[in-house]
Amino acid sequence: MSNIITMKLPHSADISQLLPFRKQQSTVARTVYSFVSSNPNSKEIEIRQHVNSCLEDYLTSCDSWLVQSALRMGKGQADADIALDKVHRSPKPLSGRRIFGGRKNFMDFQNKKITKEQYSAKRLSNFYSVGEAPQYGNRKVNFLEDRLVIKPRLGIAVEILLPDLRGKYKEYYTALILASTNKELPITVSVSDSHVLLSFDPDKLTKRSTPIKGRHLGVDVNPNYIGISYFDENHTILDTQLFDLSSLTGKHANHPKLKHEIREIAHAVVRKANHFRIDAAFVENLGFKQGDNGLGKNYNRLCGNQFLYTEFFRILGKFIATKFVVAAYSSTVGNVLNPTFPDPVASSIEIARRGYQYSIMRNSRGFYPNLPKIEDLQRRWKDVVFPIFKTWIEIHEFLKDTRLRYRVPFDTKGFESISYFKSKKSNVKQRHWIGKNYHVFDL
Predict the structure, then answer these.
(1) Average pLDDT per run of 10 along the chain, which is 443 residues long?
(2) For residue 127, which of 185, 172, 67 has the smallest C-alpha distance?
(3) Sign of the CA dihedral running 161, 164, 168, 171
(4) Are residues 275 and 353 in the same domain?
(5) Which of 54, 60, 112, 312 is spaced 20 to 30 A from 292 at the CA atom?
(6) What whole-number distance in Å separates Cα of residue 69 and Cα of residue 190?
């Protein structure tokens, strides 16, 4: 038997847009309650037929799922009263006699202490949506870190800010977000004027796999691309990911859409990290000055307003121990040493290597890897005469001065064909490394 619990959280959001849906759900629930109380053995298909015959012309706001949710609410109320009657064996059965809104509300209205509008407001049911695991927990609700977004119908979105959760509630809600993104748990949501109620089975909550000490990932983030590389405890590569956000940035970018997809990508990385039992994430220590950087308004727009790396790292840090590494020349080093990976992934490999050397191997001298051999560079750039390099900074300056193309393009062999992240509507493209042409120089 399921062990369903309910978290009741206060809110102060304006939910007036939910009023027409609540009114119609209230009518459906009361109609179902009355029918089931008189016909306790009725099947769900019979209840639906009764609702359709009674309310066919009335249900103009609620779609089929909200009607179905209200049907289950009304049936649950009737079943509860019938069960109580069987336990108490009262000469005056409770089933079919429930006073919606409460007896006091009814008596106050009878005695003209409250208006009809006040009486009706207290009889109003909560907005109610039954959870579904395959629909990210609930098809009408998005579960975000600090808020819920209720979407009763296309074009309507009601945001409900959550209070500052602590203790068990914070632990539960954090796990709910992960379970929702993994499509593992139905979460039923009920919303009143002052509270939101989340009902779920805690035994089915996503439990983060115990991390394997030393397993790690590297992240390279820029406004248009995110490269991820996953490693085991011996720094052997497990998988890579490349997310292309370029269609969401630029002059006509939709900021809320971009922020949403950044969050979704962060959760996707968390899911894969959980799968590989990653212990730590190594990310670049980035910092951009506000205002004009002197590189043009397009650059200012891209790196100032559309580079949401703090949002990405905030979500990543909620689930994985995140450690920052200095990003000096990581792109040059990564692309030179990892020519079979595209630029962001190659850079993420170098960031992971630095974190591995510093935090796991405790090698304070391992900030830069060994310099590549001249023969290796000569094979890659056949018509270039290379001098003897003593530092990676000299290699970087030489590549810049000679304008050699060292960033690996995205058509690198070894990656699957491009696919859309989650769906075509995301406008985010992704690639995965499939294990061919893999080469990494010595650490």
Answers:
(1) 85 94 94 92 92 86 93 93 81 76 88 89 93 93 90 93 90 86 89 95 76 92 88 92 82 76 87 89 72 51 56 84 88 89 90 91 86 88 88 91 82 52 68 46 33
(2) 67
(3) positive
(4) yes
(5) 312
(6) 10
Q: Is 209 within the bounds of a domain?
A: no
* 110, part of any domain: yes
* C-beta separation of 326 from 285 below 8 A: yes
Residue with tokens 């940035």: 249
Do residues 233 and 343 both lie within one domain?
yes
C-alpha distances in angstroms, 79 versus 45, 73, 85? 16, 10, 10
Domain of 317, CATH number, reads 3.30.420.10
d(CA 154, CA 30): 26
Q: Are 233 and 215 in contact (CB under 8 A)?
A: yes
How many residues are present in the chain?
A: 443
* Number of domains into which the chain is organized: 2
Structure token pair of residue 410: 């995205």
- Between the two ends of the chain, the Cα-to-Cα distance in Å is 53
- Neighbouring residues of 268: CB distance < 8 A, sequence distance ≥ 6: 181, 241, 421
Strand segments (E) across 222-279: 225-231, 237-244
